[in-house]
Amino acid sequence: METIILFGLFLVVYAVLVLPGLKRKREARDLLASLSEGDEVILDSGLHGIITALDGGIIYLEVSEGVEMKYARSSVAARLLGDTDESGDEK
Q: How far apart are the first and last CA of the chain?
């Protein structure tokens, strides 16, 4: 009986602590693999820009007209979807 309770407790801890972390890692891996030129992204530092080129683990990001910067691909936190105006509302 004690073995069943311990096993059940282990399953609950695994489901609550481990599975969400695995899901986040999978989503981050999928995001990095699906990046392409022209995607508007946000970096971990909060910098916004448009990907102009991809070179393995490096992305080139246009942060302003005529200003291109080089970053590690792993620094991408999110891809922005849809067009937004300056107030943050969808166009």
A: 60
